[in-house]
């Protein structure tokens, strides 16, 4: 355990980097995921096809392959950036497919009677969606969306395995293989770092879930 | 809810407008796609040199490449198969003992489940790879991957099994007890067979997750599909082409599996008054 106590600042910094990746990727994936969900319910066929293709590709492709693609494919398009940027974008794009499905299933969970009632009192498409459907959909979107985000935090370790320098997983690998520290305490420290994030997040999510639950 | 309840059926003018907008967005998407192709072509990504080994049987690298990738895919499927099998066995045991055992044991199981669920699977795999030899358990590298994946997935399967048993009507166990069956008999002869049926779609979805996660074998140099692809790329120097191919294979396999899951779900719920399929929030829908 000595290795953890001696190097606690490294682990803390790793935890910070992990949180940073997750913050950026989380914001980006919410934007992209919402946009793709919009595409999937849009009345325009090409947009719907695009949304479906996007979800099919990113849901069925391992994150590792997505990240490899980011590392090799994007530079081939003539865009250059650091691996931190590529890794974060890759993580966000992969997660966006799941965000999209969470939002879409939330919209689908609102009973059709709500929309019919809204229309029958004279609300238009925008009003129906904004005032009636979305406020109710949010309640059923939050629980799955929270699970998606927790999964994303764990998946950020894979981006770390690719050599985004300095995140929690990368710190652990460096400590154990490059500096020859004892493997078991190091990995326990890494696991503990993720648990510090994921377990409270899970508890919080459970609480929010109970708060927003609808009696049906 | 279908989207059509959100707005009135469009009239002729709205339909015309929608058609123009469709064509326009279609063109924009095509232009974007074209730009990607153009940039790739400019970068020399469509040359024979880069694609030949993959698609031309007369190319000298064709046979070795396909053999290499084929073996890699075989290893991927093998590791995924073992992982799902072990996860199923251990997950079922966890789920069953959790229902019946003493309180301290139940708490221990819940603790283990939370710990394993909260840790990234790549950390678990690396742990199995590095820590087990230290503990004196020297296994071939495939088993490190299988152990890591099993540790991660068995707790999810346990939840699926529990949901499967919970989804059965109470009358099933009551009737079984009423005809004089013991607790074990009720579980193994009545509840579990029905629960497994109800769980089938969720299990197939979980297989997709396991298949995707075997690609993490590259972090411990297990010769699975992605890792073999990397080896090939080192020699052939065509990362984009090979990763496209690998992604395509994964997408085809996993898409087929998810369709199969939907199909079994529909078949199972057909001809029943209530659809009793187990549907906990599975990892397949969260991207775990």
From TrEMBL, chain A:
Keywords: Amino-acid transport, Cell membrane, Membrane, Transmembrane, Transmembrane helix, Transport. The chain crosses the membrane at residues 21-43, 148-171, 183-208. It is a multi-pass membrane protein. InterPro entries: AA_ABC_transptr_permease_3TM, ArtM/GltK/GlnP/TcyL/YhdX-like, MetI-like, MetI-like_sf. Its main location: membrane. Belongs to the binding-protein-dependent transport system permease family. HisMQ subfamily. This is Glutamate transport system permease protein. It comes from Actinopolyspora mzabensis.
UniProtKB/TrEMBL annotation, chain B:
SUPFAM superfamilies: MetI-like. The chain crosses the membrane at residues 20-38, 76-96, 108-129, 141-165, 186-209, 242-263. The keyword Transmembrane applies. GO terms for cellular component: ATP-binding cassette (ABC) transporter complex. It is a multi-pass membrane protein. It comes from the Bacteria. Keywords: Cell membrane, Membrane, Transmembrane, Transmembrane helix, Transport. GO terms for molecular function: transmembrane transporter activity. It is found in: Cell membrane. One of its GO terms (biological process) is amino acid transport. The keyword Repeat does not apply. Belongs to the binding-protein-dependent transport system permease family. PANTHER family: AMINO ACID ABC TRANSPORTER PERMEASE (PTHR30614:SF21), MEMBRANE COMPONENT OF AMINO ACID ABC TRANSPORTER (PTHR30614). This is Glutamate transport system permease protein. It comes from Actinopolyspora mzabensis.
């Amino acid at each position: 355990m000595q290795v953890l106590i001696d190097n606690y600042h490294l682990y803390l910094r790793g935890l910070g980097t992990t949180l940073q990746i997750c913050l950026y990727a989380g914001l980006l994936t919410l934007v992209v995921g919402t946009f793709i969900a919009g595409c999937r319910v849009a009345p325009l066929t090409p947009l719907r096809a695009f949304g479906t293709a996007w979800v099919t590709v990113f849901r069925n492709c391992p994150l590792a392959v997505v990240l490899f693609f980011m590392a090799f494919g994007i530079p081939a398009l003539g865009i250059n950036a650091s691996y931190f940027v590529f890794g974060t974008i890759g993580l966000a794009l992969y997660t966006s497919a799941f965000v999209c499905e969470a939002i879409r299933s939330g919209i689908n969970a609102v009973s059709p009677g709500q929309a019919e009632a809204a229309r029958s009192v004279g609300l238009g498409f925008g009003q129906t969606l904004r005032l009636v459907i979305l406020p109710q959909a949010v309640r059923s979107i939050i629980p799955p969306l929270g699970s998606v985000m927790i999964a994303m935090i764990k998946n950020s370790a894979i981006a770390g395995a690719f050599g985004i320098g300095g995140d929690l997983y990368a710190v652990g690998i460096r400590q154990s293989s490059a500096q020859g520290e004892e493997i078991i305490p190091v990995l326990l420290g890494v696991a503990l770092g993720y648990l510090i994030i994921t377990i409270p997040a899970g508890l919080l999510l459970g609480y929010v879930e109970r708060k927003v639950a609808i009696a049906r | 809810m279908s989207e059509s309840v959100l707005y009135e059926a469009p009239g002729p003018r709205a339909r015309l407008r929608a058609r123009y907008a469709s064509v326009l967005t279609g063109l924009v998407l095509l232009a974007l796609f074209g730009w990607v192709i153009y940039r790739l072509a400019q970068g020399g990504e469509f040359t024979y040199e880069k694609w030949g080994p993959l698609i031309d049987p007369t190319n000298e690298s064709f046979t070795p490449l396909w053999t290499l990738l084929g073996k890699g895919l075989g290893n991927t499927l093998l590791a995924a198969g073992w992982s799902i099998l072990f996860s199923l066995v251990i997950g079922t045991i966890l789920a069953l003992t959790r229902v019946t055992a003493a309180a301290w044991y139940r708490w221990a199981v819940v603790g283990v489940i939370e710990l394993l669920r909260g840790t990234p699977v790549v950390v678990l795999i690396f742990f199995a790879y590095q820590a087990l030899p230290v503990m004196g358990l020297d296994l071939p590298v495939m088993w490190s991957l299988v152990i890591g994946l099993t540790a991660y997935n068995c707790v999810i399967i346990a939840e699926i099994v529990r949901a499967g048993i919970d989804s059965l009507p109470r009358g099933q166990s009551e009737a079984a007890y009423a005809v004089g069956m013991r607790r074990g008999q009720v579980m193994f002869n009545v509840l579990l067979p029905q629960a497994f049926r109800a769980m089938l779609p969720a299990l197939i979805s979980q297989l997709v997750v396991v298949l995707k996660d075997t690609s993490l074998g590259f972090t411990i140099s297990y010769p699975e599909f992605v890792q073999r692809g990397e080896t090939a790329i080192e020699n052939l120097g065509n990362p984009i082409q090979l990763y496209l191919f690998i992604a395509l294979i994964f997408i085809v396999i996993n898409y087929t599996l998810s369709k199969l899951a939907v199909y079994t779900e529909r078949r199972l719920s057909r001809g029943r008054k209530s659809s009793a399929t187990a549907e906990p929030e599975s990892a397949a829908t969260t991207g775990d």
